[in-house]
Amino acid sequence: MATASSKTTQDFVPIKEVKNGVVILKDGGMRGILMASSLNFALKSTDEQNSIIYQFQNLLNSLDFSIQIFVQSKRLDIRPYIALLENRYKEQMGDLMKIQTREYIEFIKNFTDNSSIMTKSFFVVIPYSPPLLQTKDNFMGKLLGKKPSVSEDAGKQKIEDFEEHRSQLEQRMSVVEQGLVRSGVRVVQLGTEEIIELYYRIFNPGDMEKPIQLT
Question: Is 198 exposed, middle or buried (0-12, 13-18, 19+ CB in 10 A)?
């Protein structure tokens, strides 16, 4: 008998696979993920703020399905910028520029060491649960222990069913995307590699230095 201690980490992850930019859960549910930009709401005029609120309210009221807004906060990785400055330092020919570049590098290092500078990434998760359909004949066949025929093979329509369900999910994603764009938010749909990278960092928080690279 398997105990809780014998289970692997993967047993607690609800994801079955990521295919064609779609997260497929173990229970058959599907998820699409949009990466959204931020807005400096405080710098907007009163009319602009009211317009943004109104458009976002319209988006929420137009949805007949739930969405999840996920905010990922992480400490800013300044190492690539420091490496760039180090290369610029080596390229400087004048002593004055070398001194100024070195002082600037030390200032950036000290500032980031003494201050916790955080970056935020915004994601919108859109769900879709395919309907569970089962014919009467299939149900009775399973009840009586009858083996399914070739025409009843569950894998026969797997590709067609996936594409059909993905189309339904993409329609939902399009509704959310259009609503966010009208609110002034830029949106990009994550592909398979970006989704895998995102979930890897969620389940492995120690490997979150680099930003997600969109293809």
Answer: buried
Which residues of the chain have a pLDDT value below 70? 1-10, 132-157, 206-215
CATH number at residue 50: 3.30.70
On whether both 112 and 126 belong to a single domain, the answer is no
Q: Which tokens is 108 given?
A: 């950036």
Question: 39, 71, 37, 70: which is closest to 52 by C-alpha?
Answer: 39
Residue 149 domain-assigned (yes or no): no
Q: Which domain holds residue 92?
A: 77-116
Query: CA-CA distances (angstroms) from residue 81 to 77, 85, 98, 107, 185?
Result: 8, 6, 17, 13, 27
What is the per-residue pLDDT for 110? Answer: 85
Q: What number of H helices and E strands is found in the chain?
A: 6, 6
For residue 2, being part of any structural domain is answered with no
Q: Are 73 and 120 in contact (CB under 8 A)?
A: yes
Does 85 share its domain with 176? no
Within 6-135, strands assigned E span 15-19, 22-25, 30-36, 68-75, 118-128
pTM of the model as a whole: 0.68
* Same domain, residue pair 38 and 99: no
How far is Cα of residue 8 from the mean position of the Cα atoms in its chain?
Answer: 24
| Per-residue pLDDT tens digits for 116-155 | 777 889 999 999 998 764 444 444 454 455 555 555 555 5
CA-to-CA distance for 150 and 140, rounded, in angstroms? 17
